[in-house]
Amino acid sequence: MNTKISTIITGLLAISLTGCIDDERSINGICENHSQICTDIETKGWCKNERALLIRNRLQQIKAPNDQENHYRSLINWKKFSYCIEAASNIKRRNIDDRDPTKAASFINSVREIEKLEQQTINSQLPQLLYYHWVQSGNDIKIDTLLKLDQNNKLDTTELQLMMSSYYSKINGKKAAKAQYNALELLTQQDLDSIDHTIFASLSTHHYQTKNLELSYIWAQVAVRFGLKANLYSSLTSELSRKGVQLTVLDQKADDIYQSINNLAFKETN
């Protein structure tokens, strides 16, 4: 299953005026002070970013063992690390002599850690973990809890609205689009830096399917401005031109939306 999961990372690196990284917050510094959270995930230089995120998660777990949000981030980062190190270790090679035992051991440990964290968090009421376990198990109780929270406007972050959009996309396109609009209205700078730009193409597709060609064109243009190739762009241009629609007007609206998103000031006006 290709599960999209948002990976927003809070700023953990403190840069001093001299440009040096605070030792406690550097990976080398963490490993010197807490070797037990580093030695079992050696990678011989592979998967550096994935390993660094995990080490920070593990340090946070030492400092705050009941931090549920860190448990969620840890699960996501363990999975990313596991996928990466599995490929790096050639774990599926038939000839065991061709495998790297250090990386293979790190992969096996990642699987164990994922299983352990899943058991530890299975009853968590943190929305992100409710969604995670619903994806893993299809447990209706967990998604029902999330739906109630959403109805009461309790899922008021970009990350959570995108999770709900993913759920709604299977059953109700209108609600999925609404959740995507909500996600854009709730953007923070960290969200903007990490958001999957396919959200804009998704909104274009939604409006095309509901026969709102002008909005579909606008969001296709927004997608283009964020660097995507909008598949609907050519056909939309032709259809709207035949209807006598002034594309320059729609282009300006796309510009306005693009700017509002980058300024963290987007508001749905449809």
Any overview of this molecule?
This protein is mostly helical. The protein folds into 3 domains: 23-121; 125-190; 196-270, no CATH class. 63% of the residues lie in helices and 0% in strands. Helix 11 crosses helix 13 (247-262). The longest helix is centred in the first third of the chain and has 21 residues, at 68-88. The protein starts with 26 loop residues before the first helix and ends in an 8-residue tail after the last helix. Residues 1-24 and 93-97 have low confidence and may be disordered.
Helix content: 55-70%
Q: Tell me the number of structural domains.
A: 3
Judged by helices, strands and strand pairing, the structural class is: mainly alpha
- Cα-to-Cα separation, first versus last residue: 33 Å
Q: Quick one: biggest sheet?
A: none
| Overall pLDDT | 88
Shape: elongated
Record field, number of beta strands: 0
Low-confidence stretches: 1-24, 93-97
Number of helices: 13
The proportion of residues in beta strands is: under 5%
What is the string of helix and strand elements?
A: HHHHHHHHHHHHH
Over all CA atoms, what is the radius of gyration?
A: 22 Å
Layout of secondary structure:
Elements: H1 27-33, H2 48-63, H3 68-88, H4 101-121, H5 127-137, H6 140-151, H7 158-168, H8 173-185, H9 189-194, H10 198-209, H11 213-225, H12 233-242, H13 247-262
Helix pairs in contact: 2-3, 3-4, 5-6, 7-8, 8-10, 10-11, 11-12, 11-13
